[in-house]
Design brief:
The protein has one domain: Cyclic phosphodiesterase (Cyclic Phosphodiesterase, Chain: A), CATH 3.90.1140. With 192 residues, the protein is α+β, with helices and mostly antiparallel strands.
Length: 192
């Protein structure tokens, strides 16, 4: 099973991101592989291939980590690309969150590392992947996408209250990845 741990978004945020993606599609042609807006999520940790026999331990570990974290609010705001406009690879929407977001990611990372899932080498950079840019993007297409994205660099797509983390199974299909929740774990540290 190919697994990752993520926070889900609200239907309203999905709808706003879908509308924004549609405006970008008008100028991108086939130069970008767009993520279906209903699949957009905030990845906390990508685990990769996991033996089904390890799933129960993983669920228990993530559920325990969730007990150590409080629910929190975050906003989806702004847009950009990784690594930069000289050679864009990932088109993203930004995430603004309190320290709780970083604390949750660090807690999940540490807990899963203890059971054999190594940490990502790059620092956590919260974002929502909207699309992956193909190698053959033309300068004209890249410039048109950049102009539309510059107009949304401060756009608020909505807010989300994170009350749970989800362990998703990702199944690769010809039409794109299909994400199925394998488990949902509550955040429930008492306030105060």
């Amino acid at each position: 099973m190919r697994l990752f741990i993520a926070l889900t978004l609200t239907p309203e945020v999905h709808a706003e991101l879908d509308a924004f993606e549609r405006t970008l599609r008008t100028v991108s042609g086939d130069s970008v592989r767009w993520v279906n807006a209903a699949n957009i999520h905030l990845t906390l940790k990508f685990l990769g291939e996991v033996a089904p026999a390890r799933l129960d331990l993983l669920i228990k570990t993530v559920a325990q980590a969730g007990l150590d974290c409080e629910p929190f609010d975050f906003s989806v705001r702004g847009t950009g690309v990784f690594p930069g406009w000289n050679h864009p690879r990932i088109i993203w929407a930004g995430v603004e969150g309190p320290a709780g977001l970083g604390a949750l990611q660090a807690t999940v990372d540490a807990a899963t590392r203890e059971i054999g899932f190594p940490s990502e080498e790059r620092p956590f950079s919260p974002h929502l992947t909207l699309g992956r840019v193909n190698e053959w993007i033309s300068p004209v297409q890249a410039d048109a996408i950049r102009q539309k994205m510059d107009g949304a660099k401060d756009r608020l797509f909505g807010g989300v209250t994170a009350r749970q983390v989800t362990i998703f199974e990702s199944t690769l299909k010809p039409g794109g990845a299909v994400y199925t929740p394998a488990a949902v774990c509550d955040l429930s540290k008492p306030n105060g």
